[in-house]
Specification:
Length: 483
């Protein structure tokens, strides 16, 4: 059965034009005027855009003594409800666990996905097994490796491990990613704050000032440069980190920064709320920042020094957050946002004039599809691309509320916020998963998206690394062996 999206305006990362879109067999079959199909979706007054791709989710993630509450079913349902048609989740080996073993666990969990997905692999410890298995992981189509520079004593890796893993990524044509916070300093600050009687959620923010993020971002950039590999910095929350990324990019380094919708629209005042639950529900790392840092992130999106808007969706219930009553270091870190990323970014970005519609498509979909080497299968409105599409009604409004959300948790960090701009239809490989606000997802419809290593940027960097590699200086008369 074919579907035609009629009377809409196509908006891509670089073009805006009127045309119909014909979908057949899960792919875009034709784009042009006057198309016909078995099923017609009316896009009058709407924009037809590539569906959103959220490259940073933690669904059913074991973390801080519990599991994040949204699994691949509820998480991807929330994604589709908000116009996101693909998620990239993190397979997370516990320290000492093999990468392939962890991957089997994530394969099982993801069988319930309503939309397409891929994985990043986390490197949470270092050894021969990890070194070896990284190749097999890449062979499975997982070509990005995440490193935590924070969470000391749990997921954190040290600089020697970071360098070894980055070099392995360079050999394999893979992309290293970092959670950039100086975990040693954070651990010291947490201990001191607790000793001084700072036990509430606000102390979480005190323990992770922008400097810990700026320092770690800069360190990771330099280590990646020495390893000859590109770098993706997740949840860039502040000017200190953004400045390091901006400077690196100006120097020609291949570094990408990813602000979250939460950091763009919520600020540190949330932690000073008199209600403990309200503040604890917003505990995440890095924490929300001041308005000045928010302005820096918005400027980065407009100027191109920041590339992708994600959510880091890692949702915990109020009951789970209460594990940290009396000790802020035990509050599970993480917030939700999958359903709200696109409407919140449109409302606070496009309708305010901070970014254009085309930039919206770039930072919610196309840029990450290119960075992760899955463009134009994903992130494009082109003939032959997957029909992951959103028909966007820029006039539709709603008030965000936990009462009507898809996520399994009992609150929403954006509760009460008015948004203007919502999906009229969301299509996942041609299947209409959302129609006029009605969510009609199909559990298990989602497919794994395998990615090729050796993206163009990796190839360019390794060519440069070869050209500039250390070589012995030939000295006349003395044999190289020295004998
Ligand atoms: N961000 C956060 O607080 N929780 C999820 C895990 C991570 O990305 O650090
Ligand atoms: Zn993180
Ligand atoms: Zn994360």
């Amino acid at each position: 059965m074919s579907t035609v999206i009629k009377n809409g305006t196509i908006v891509t990362a670089d073009l805006t034009y009127r045309a119909d879109v014909l979908v057949e067999g899960g792919k875009i079959a034709a784009i042009g005027p006057g198309l016909a199909g078995d099923q017609v979706l009316d896009a009058s007054g709407c924009y037809v855009m590539p569906g959103g791709i959220d490259p940073h989710t933690h669904l059913e993630m074991p973390f801080m003594g519990t599991y994040s509450a949204d699994d691949f079913e509820s998480g991807t349902r929330a994604a589709l409800a908000g116009g996101t048609t693909m998620v990239v989740d993190f397979a997370l080996p516990s320290p000492g666990q093999g990468l392939l073993d962890a991957l089997r666990m994530w394969d099982n969990k993801a069988g319930r996905a309503n939309c397409d997905y891929s994985f990043h692999m986390a490197v949470t410890w270092w050894g021969e097994q990890v070194f070896d298995e990284m190749q097999a992981v890449v062979g499975r189509g997982i070509t990005s490796f995440k490193h935590f520079m924070a969470y000391k004593g749990a997921l954190m890796v040290n600089d020697d491990e970071l360098f070894a893993s980055f070099r392995r990524c360079a050999e394999l044509g893979a992309l290293p990613m970092v959670h950039a916070e100086n975990g040693d300093v954070v651990a010291e600050m947490c201990a001191r704050l607790l000793a001084e009687g700072n036990t509430g959620p606000e102390a979480h923010a005190y323990s992770r000032p922008p400097q810990v993020e700026g320092e770690a971002t800069n360190r990771a950039i330099m280590i990646a440069d020495m390893a000859g590999v590109p770098l993706y910095v997740v949840h860039t929350s502040c000017e200190d980190s953004h400045e390091a990324i901006r400077r690196a990019r100006m120097q020609g380094k291949r570094v990408w920064g990813e602000p979250l919708i939460q950091h763009l629209t919520l600020d540190e005042s949330e932690y000073f709320h008199p209600d403990w639950d309200h503040a604890a529900r917003r505990v995440m790392s890095p924490p929300f920042r001041s308005k000045a840092h928010q302005d820096s992130l918005w400027a980065g999106l407009a100027s191109g020094s920041l590339s992708v808007v994600a959510t880091d969706h890692c949702a915990f219930t109020t009951e789970q957050k209460r594990f940290g009553k009396g000790d802020f270091t035990r509050i599970p870190n993480g917030t939700g946002g999958l359903e709200d990323r696109m409407p919140m970014l449109w409302t606070h970005g496009v309708t305010t004039g901070r970014i254009t519609m085309n930039e919206f498509v770039a930072v919610t979909s196309t840029n990450i599809a290119k960075i992760l080497n899955m463009y134009p299968k994903k992130g494009a409105v082109l003939v032959g691309a997957d029909a992951d599409l959103v028909v966007w009604d820029a006039e539709a409004t709603k008030t965000i509320s936990a009462a009507s959300q898809q996520s399994a948790i009992d609150y929403n960090v954006f509760e009460g916020k008015q948004v203007k701009g919502l999906p009229r239809y969301t299509l996942s490989r041609g299947m209409v998963a959302v129609a006029d606000g009605k969510v009609q997802t199909r559990e298990g419809h989602g497919q794994f998206v395998a990615r090729e290593p050796g993206a163009a940027v990796n190839k360019a960097l390794s060519a440069w690394k070869d050209l500039t590699a250390p070589r012995p200086v030939p000295r006349g008369g003395i044999p190289a062996s020295g004998v």
